[in-house]
Q: What sequence folds into this?
């Protein structure tokens, strides 16, 4: 088969792809612009604030308790601390009130007064925040080129002896000296001289870098799917800190700075010990404490949310504070979960805080617990909500012009979001979602309207193409294509197939000129009548 | 023989643009790299790192890239050269109405088309590809930068040069077809422009080149079929 024969078959679909792609892109832009225009035109000149709803005494007390900070004394007693901001004669004053759980006011003063109580303090913790999404973003091929993770080796101040570069696809580091020569490979089995000796790290999850105490060279805490490593390129060591084996590590929290990350983060050794809290996907919790070294498996209940507890690894005892609420942690996309929002956001729900002491076997002993009812939030429709509703309505109507398969894809994506809202999405997936639904906070619910419009487009394509059809396969392909891609497909069809029609001299019906015979009666087009000057045309 | 003669002729016609673009690209890139060298020597954050001093994890990623500033210049030059070459090779014939003269010679249409494509590819390689490669080799010299650019940067730069070829084909597809200007004639340029954006949000070079390859096949098949069957 010659090349020109091949292009004869590829070029019609190629043209269809080019034109349909441009029309689809134009439709996405229209889907983005029109609701935006509606939003801008709807902005009122003056935003009138709505009055605060009236509360009963019981509701006021409930709100006070819900908003108060809950603090523990060393013996486990719980106090509720309320902060009241008020304006007096143009000056802002802050009043602090300390209540007990029986609603008795224990102390009242300003924020500069010293209260007589000494509460337990909870050391700040940092999560390893450089994650796989950041690593993926760094690899994005922009016009300024992708980035690479590079770790310098700094034996002393001002002296850089080389660097180690991470290869994401191969999952190991390659070392270079200051002359650019390779000096080794760092992987799960340590640092090796040759590439074939190194064992790659597992799938990268998170990383944090911290300074060494006796040198400026960075030290890495490197978390993969199942393991946690400490990598020191200056000392050329790769130390396995934790191996979850078949389990997957969900989260690593560094308490009181296992690896210090800023000048302020110097651990108070007198009060707290450096610790690391590792959570696996099956909700198991492991605690690693230093000075002296201890490893504990916390015997936490299986339904505990790992985001809801804090640990204070003190020098004499280890305390754990757990806070939770009915319905669990608020969903970040709760607008797509109306039932949950109605039950656990706008209606009263129970919250509680507990203090436990952790013994050397990881067992938790309850010290104290406090429970209260949060009155929930009041549903208020502000003028901004009205504008937003107008924008969302406009977005839904415009979405009716979108391809029906986009609606189906959006439904599938939305179900995935509900099932696993924490799953990180790649850039291609995010771009596709943006193309399908530019206003992602609007749940596309115009499926019946969308399908009705789609059928209308198919009817239009049918009416246009019936007289002009050249083959059944092509005709049916276009009808299906228009049905799947709606307006953009109809415009593409018209761009590529709008040809002239004439009245058939035999049957009198409309027929196209792309085929010799009439599609209705089969009569061929008549030959042109010969004229005197047609020397080359043979008559009849 | 005719093919080589045609390629040489097309290359000669593009020589002016080639010299100007190469000169401008080398000049601008040179200035950018020179500034990067000076900046890297003065502002190396690791030179002042003290034991126990804070380190932010993102510092390990956000280091200055020696050729980072050259990328946008390369892309712009590639796009301008690609669309300019297509205009010069195809639109000039439309404007001067010399297609009939060009086509009705003892050379097949596909030879003419292939010669134009080859000349365009050669121009892009000589004008942008080679200077880019030489710049990369210069910047990779040990001791010049703390972090020399990896090999991937060289490949990414070549990808930017190939994007110029995509736009060349898009412009050519728009210029050879006979549809009216107010209809879908220039859709091919819009398609090529959209395709140029897609690889720039990818993380995998394989996916980038796959996107470019598919786009080139689509545009090439449209151009070949139109050009070979069109009446001039």
A:
């Amino acid at each position: 088969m010659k090349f020109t024969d091949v292009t004869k078959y590829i070029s019609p679909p190629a043209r269809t792809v080019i034109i349909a792609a441009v029309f689809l892109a134009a439709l996405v832009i229209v889907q983005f612009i029109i609701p935006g225009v509606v939003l801008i035109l709807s902005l009122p000149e003056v935003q009138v604030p709505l009055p605060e709803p009236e509360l009963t005494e019981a509701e006021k007390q409930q709100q006070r308790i819900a908003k108060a900070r809950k603090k523990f004394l060393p013996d486990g007693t719980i106090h509720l601390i309320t902060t009241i901001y008020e304006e007096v004669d143009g000056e802002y004053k802050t009043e602090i009130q300390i209540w007990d759980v029986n609603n008795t006011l224990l102390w009242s003063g300003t924020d500069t007064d010293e209260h007589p109580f000494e509460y337990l303090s909870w050391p700040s913790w940092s999560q390893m925040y450089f994650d796989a999404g950041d690593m993926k973003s760094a690899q994005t091929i922009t016009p300024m080129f992708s980035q690479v993770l590079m770790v310098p080796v700094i034996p002393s101040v001002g002296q850089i002896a080389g660097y180690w570069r991470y290869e994401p696809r191969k999952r190991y580091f390659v070392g270079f000296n200051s002359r650019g020569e390779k000096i080794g490979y760092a992987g799960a089995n340590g640092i090796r001289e040759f590439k074939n000796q190194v064992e790659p790290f597992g799938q990268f999850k998170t990383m944090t870098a911290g300074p060494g105490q006796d040198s400026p060279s960075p030290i890495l805490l490197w978390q993969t799917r199942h393991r946690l490593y400490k990598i020191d390129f200056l000392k050329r060591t790769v130390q396995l800190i934790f191996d979850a084996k078949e389990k997957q590590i969900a989260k690593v929290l560094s308490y009181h700075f296992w690896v210090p990350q800023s000048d302020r983060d110097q651990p108070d050794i007198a009060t707290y010990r450096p610790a690391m809290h590792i959570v696996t996907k099956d909700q198991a919790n492991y605690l690693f404490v230093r000075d002296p070294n201890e490893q504990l498996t916390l015997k936490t209940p299986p339904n505990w949310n790992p985001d809801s507890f804090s640990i204070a690894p003190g020098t004499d005892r280890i305390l754990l504070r757990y806070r939770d609420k009915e319905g669990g942690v608020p969903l970040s996309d709760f607008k797509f979960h109306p039932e949950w929002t109605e039950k656990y956001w706008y209606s009263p729900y129970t919250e509680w805080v507990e203090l436990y002491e952790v013994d050397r076997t990881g067992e938790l002993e309850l010290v104290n617990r406090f429970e209260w009812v949060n009155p929930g939030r009041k549903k208020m429709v502000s003028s901004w909500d009205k504008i937003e509703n107008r924008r969302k309505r406009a977005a839904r109507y415009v979405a009716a012009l979108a391809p029906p398969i986009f609606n189906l894809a959006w439904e599938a994506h939305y179900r995935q979001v509900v099932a696993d809202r924490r799953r990180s999405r790649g850039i291609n997936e995010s771009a596709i979602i943006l193309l399908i639904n530019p206003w992602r906070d609007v749940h596309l619910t115009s499926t019946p309207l969308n399908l009705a419009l789609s059928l209308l487009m198919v009817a239009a394509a049918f009416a246009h193409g019936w007289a002009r059809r050249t083959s059944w396969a092509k005709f049916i392909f276009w009808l299906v294509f228009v049905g799947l891609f709606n307006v953009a497909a109809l415009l593409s069809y018209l761009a590529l197939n709008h040809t002239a029609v004439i009245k058939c001299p035999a049957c009198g019906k409309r027929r196209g000129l792309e085929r010799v015979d009439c599609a209705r009666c089969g009569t061929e087009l008549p030959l042109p009548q010969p004229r005197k000057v047609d020397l080359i045309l043979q008559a009849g | 023989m005719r093919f080589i003669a045609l390629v040489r002729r097309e290359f000669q016609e593009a020589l002016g643009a080639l010299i100007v673009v190469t000169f401008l690209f080398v000049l601008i890139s040179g200035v950018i790299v020179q500034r990067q060298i000076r900046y890297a020597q003065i502002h190396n954050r690791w030179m002042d790192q003290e034991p126990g001093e804070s380190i932010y994890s993102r510092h390990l990623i956000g280091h200055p890239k020696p050729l980072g500033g050259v990328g946008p210049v390369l892309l712009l030059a590639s796009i301008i050269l690609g669309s300019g070459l297509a205009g010069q090779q195809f639109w000039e014939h439309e404007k001067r109405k010399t297609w009939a003269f060009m086509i009705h010679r003892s050379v097949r249409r596909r030879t003419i088309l292939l010669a134009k494509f080859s000349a365009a590819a050669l121009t892009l390689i000589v004008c942008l590809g080679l200077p880019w490669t030489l710049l990369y080799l210069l910047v990779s010299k040990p001791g010049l930068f703390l972090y020399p650019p990896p090999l991937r940067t060289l490949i990414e730069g070549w990808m930017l040069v190939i994007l110029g070829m995509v736009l060349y084909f898009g412009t050519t597809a728009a210029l050879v077809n006979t549809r009216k200007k107010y209809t879908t004639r220039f859709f091919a340029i819009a398609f090529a422009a959209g395709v140029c954006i897609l690889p720039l949000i990818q993380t995998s070079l394989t996916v980038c080149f796959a996107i470019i390859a598919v786009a080139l096949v689509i545009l090439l098949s449209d151009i070949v079929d139109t050009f070979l069957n069109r009446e001039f």
About this structure: The first helix of chain B runs from residue 2 to 13. Chain B has a mean pLDDT of 89.
